[in-house]
Design a protein that fits this description.
Layout: H1 2-34, H2 36-55, H3 60-75, H4 79-96, H5 99-115, H6 119-127, H7 136-155, H8 160-180, H9 186-198, H10 202-216, H11 223-237, H12 240-256, H13 264-275, H14 278-295, H15 298-419, H16 423-431, H17 434-454, H18 458-463, H19 482-491, H20 497-504, H21 508-519, H22 526-535
Helix pairs in contact: 1-12, 2-3, 3-4, 4-5, 5-6, 5-7, 6-7, 7-8, 8-9, 9-10, 10-11, 11-12, 12-13, 13-14, 14-15, 15-16, 15-17, 19-21, 20-21
């Protein structure tokens, strides 16, 4: 069961991904169609460049070759111009009186006539050419023309008998093309694909065309042809999603090459129409018709004209339906707007009452909030004060007990010396200041230890308020420096300098100097510093 569910989700993900891919390609095609005038300009520039070059050349042989380049540019762009160039080429060939040139030029004329739908005229010309007297390159072109014309005639035959006859001829010309084409060439692969499709070997045909797509897909001049071949294979296999994908790719390739006599966009429009995407189908078939008329490809125009009315009718019906729906929606919106205006007026009156009540409640809420804030701050201070008191009460009792023990030991020592007559020793002990100094150091150590026990991060937080190169750090063996000790008392709430001096046994001037020294090192203002000191450890 788990495997089935996993396969289902994998299939669903693949479908979603494929759908997203096709949608993205459609958007690219939409943009490309809008930009087709830019691609037309590129082709026109190439044509103009060739015409300029042609005007500079008088040698018939060179003009014959240059006319071929022009023919290639016009072949799928403007059929009337292509036919005129093909006839010019034939005229030059006849003047040169070269049989191979005359044969090639005649086949050029036949090719253009065939594309224009004039099959009889095209076949009449080709039939007059003796294929046995042609070289390999010309023979490949010769067979290609028969194959192209019979393909078109097969697609447009009215009876099954005619279609079968043309398909048999097509198969024969495919065999002929395979004999004369280079097996490593793309032309050979395309013809072989046709043979595989003819035999119903769609998997082999798909593999062959996929390989061609991988090999030549980056070439903008070839991608349209290969993608169209892939779409045809997928159509025969019944995979309409992949057929659509490659028709889109082929259509993009055609537009970017400024090809006007194409098939892919027309077939894509029909496919989208069948799927219900009438808007795109209409835009694509309209674009195809405009290009076919521009190209003067009369047969393509006829093909499109058979489909165009159906899609246009569907598009008009959709537009009409949307217009009717719009009128209905406008009527409904008008009614809703009227109801909305009345509702807004009523709500406005209620809101005024509600606003007054809310204002009164907000004032009460702010008062309560302020009182709660004051109460929380007071509780916080009381809690902190209680913590300090608890720590210090225990420490003071401990210090007092220690001092009592020391004083008792000192008394006993003095008393013992006096009883034993060691008056000079006793006098020396009472005259020495080292006792007070030692006790004061001990007192400072105890204070520092107790304070840092309550505020362990005091030194780091205090230094964060000073300039980076003015940090105050205790010396080795000390816990707090005198400056830190002064501000430790400030943190405990003793702000008066005289009280600090008395507590630490400093002079008031010394305390003042310490405080001034620190104030000169601050990265914040004095007022911000005073607030920040009280926030340390919270």
């Amino acid at each position: 069961m788990k495997n089935i569910l996993l396969l289902f989700f994998l299939f669903l993900n693949v479908c979603v991904f494929a759908s997203n891919k096709v949608d993205s390609l459609l958007k690219v095609l939409d943009v490309t169609i809008k930009q087709r005038s830019q691609y037309e300009q590129i082709r026109e520039l190439r044509i103009d460049s060739l015409n300029i070059e042609l005007n500079k050349i008088n040698d018939p042989e060179e003009r014959f070759g240059l006319y071929y380049k022009l023919l290639r540019e016009y072949r799928s762009y403007n059929m009337d111009s292509a036919l005129w160039i093909a006839n010019e080429r034939l005229e030059i060939a006849q003047k040169l009186n070269k049989k191979e040139h005359i044969s090639t030029a005649n086949m050029n004329v036949a090719e253009i006539l065939g594309i224009m739908g004039m099959y009889k005229e095209s076949l009449d010309i080709i039939d007059q050419i003796d294929g046995q007297k042609l070289d390999d390159r010309q023979r490949a072109y010769y067979f290609h023309l028969y194959h192209s014309i019979y393909t078109l005639m097969s697609e447009n035959s009215f009876s099954k008998k005619e279609k079968t006859h043309y398909e048999n001829l097509l198969s024969q010309y495919k065999d002929s093309l395979l004999l004369v084409n280079d097996p490593k060439s793309l032309g050979y692969a395309l013809v072989w694909n046709g043979k595989l499709v003819e035999k119903g070997k769609y998997e082999e045909a798909l593999a062959l065309m996929s390989e061609c797509y991988q090999k030549y897909g980056e070439d903008q001049s070839l991608v349209g042809t290969i993608a169209y071949g892939l779409s045809d294979v997928y159509r025969r296999m019944g995979d309409h999603e992949q057929e659509k994908k490659y028709l889109i790719i082929s259509a993009i390739g055609d537009q970017r090459k400024a090809v006007k006599g194409y098939i892919a966009l027309r077939k894509l429009a029909i496919l989208l129409y069948q799927e219900g995407d009438v808007d795109r189908a209409y835009n694509y078939i309209k674009c195809a018709m405009e290009d076919a008329i521009f190209c003067k490809a009369r047969f393509r125009t006829l093909e499109i004209s058979q489909t165009l009315p159906i899609i246009v009718a569907a598009y008009d019906k959709k537009v009409k339906q949307e217009k009717e729906n719009l009128i209905k929606y406008l009527f409904l919106i008008s009614i809703l707007s009227l109801v909305l205006v009345i509702s807004v007026f009523y709500i406005y009156k209620q809101m005024k009452k509600l606003s007054a009540a809310r204002k009164s409640i907000n004032e009460m809420y702010e008062d309560v909030k302020r009182m709660n804030g004051d109460l929380n701050e007071l509780n916080k201070k009381l809690s902190e004060s209680n913590l300090v008191k608890e720590e210090y009460i225990g420490s003071v009792f401990n210090l007092c007990s220690t001092y009592i023990d020391k004083m008792e030991a000192y008394r006993i020592d003095i008393n013992r010396k006096l009883k034993s007559g060691q008056i000079a020793e006793a006098t020396k002990m009472t005259n020495s200041t080292s006792l007070v100094s030692d006790e004061l150091k001990e007192f400072f150590r105890n204070f520092d230890a107790i304070f840092l026990n309550i505020y362990p991060n005091f030194v780091e937080e205090f230094n964060s308020l000073l300039l980076e190169n003015e940090q105050i750090l205790p010396k080795a063996g000390d816990i707090l420096t005198p400056e830190l000790r002064v501000f430790a008392l400030v943190r405990l709430g003793i702000a008066d300098s005289s009280k600090i001096a008395s507590f630490l046994h400093y002079s008031p001037q010394t305390v003042y100097n310490y405080r001034l020294k620190v104030h000169n090192k601050l990265v914040v203002s004095k007022d911000e510093f005073a607030i920040a000191i009280q926030q340390i450890g919270k």
